[in-house]
Amino acid sequence: MIKRVQSWLGREERQQPVDISPDNIPRHVAIIMDGNGRWAKRLGLPRIVGHQNGMKAVKRAAIAADELGIEYLTMYAFSTENWKRPKEEVDFLMRLPEEFLAIELDELIEKNVRVRVMGDSEALPSYTRKAMDEAVLRTQHNTGLILNFALNYGGRKEIEDCMRSLGKDIAAGHLAPEQITAELIDSRLLSGGLPDPDLLIRTSGEMRLSNFMLWQLAYSELWFTDIYWPEFGKEHLLQAVAEYQRRTRRYGGLK
Ligand code: IPE
Ligand code: IPE
Ligand code: MG
Questions:
Q1: Is the pLDDT at 172 greater than 80, yes or no?
Q2: 106 forms bridges with which residues in the sheet?
Q3: Among protein residues, the one whose CA lies closest to atom 11 of ligand 2
Q4: How far apart are CA 56 and CA 130, in angstroms?
């Protein structure tokens, strides 16, 4: 009996239309794609199978975001801390951009998606950099969704590099300390040119930032879900955006 009620409830839930207003779509959504390894483990498969399926979820999320009218989608693909993982896993992750290019990019090009990358590209293997450069180049004239990959990205490293570059400008006499403003810092970060994320999504039940966009997320709305990244689909993005639309953003002021 309980089982029947649960399955009926589940079906009802799936049938519920998600109420989304076209007037309040987040411009920039950032996603910490987490749980690939646990998803695979649950199925008794090697972790890399999780990463493989995670790549498919990236394409689904990008298409769904574009359909919703989201302008920027930033995906945390590899952190500056992920080098600590076993070599085989890192090697596999570094090969994924080539696969993404070969398998997923054409469909995204058809959807007018433009690829962008942020992170320390110099530390990447040449084949990874080449694949990302090619994705950026092949989509450079597209005018739809900006799909921004954070690859070998770390929020603290980004701030460290920004401070070093400002310090150099001051030492060289090109900049006065008084000229350092939030806008100048914004423009010197790896996300320069993108608005701050309105909504941050993290999958897999973890509730931390893991060194992601520490400056830019200052006033973003946060949404966490227990589902693992390879399971992520349009319905989850819709749920997140619907929840976003129920929030009141006050930025320290009053409603
Ligand atoms: C996210 O999934 C992908 C990357 C961090 C590269 P994980 O690989 O972190 O999967 P879990 O968290 O171990 O399940
Ligand atoms: C964050 O996930 C990095 C990416 C999603 C690329 P991790 O799985 O590396 O984060 P921690 O180690 O659980 O904080
Ligand atoms: Mg993880």
A1: yes
A2: none
A3: 210
A4: 21
Q: Is 249 annotated as a binding residue?
A: no
Q: Is the CB of 229 under 6 A from ligand 2?
A: no
Distance CA 72, CA 93 (A): 23
- Annotation-wise, does 116 bind a ligand? no
Ligand minimally distant from the alpha carbon of residue 76: 2
**72-79 β-sheet, strand order:** 114-118, 146-153, 72-79, 28-32, 199-202, 221-224
Lookup: tokens for 62: 């990008």
Residue type, 12: E
Q: Does residue 143 sit within a domain? A: yes
Tell me which residues are annotated as active site: 34, 82
The residue whose two tokens read 């007037």 is 23
Average pLDDT over residues 223-251: 98
Specify if 161 maps to a domain. no
Q: Which atom of ligand 1 is nearest to the CA of 51?
A: 3
Residue-wise pLDDT tens digits, 92-122: 999 999 999 999 999 999 999 999 999 999 9
Instruction: Give a yes or no: residue 187 inside a domain.
Output: no
Query: What is this structure's pTM?
Result: 0.94
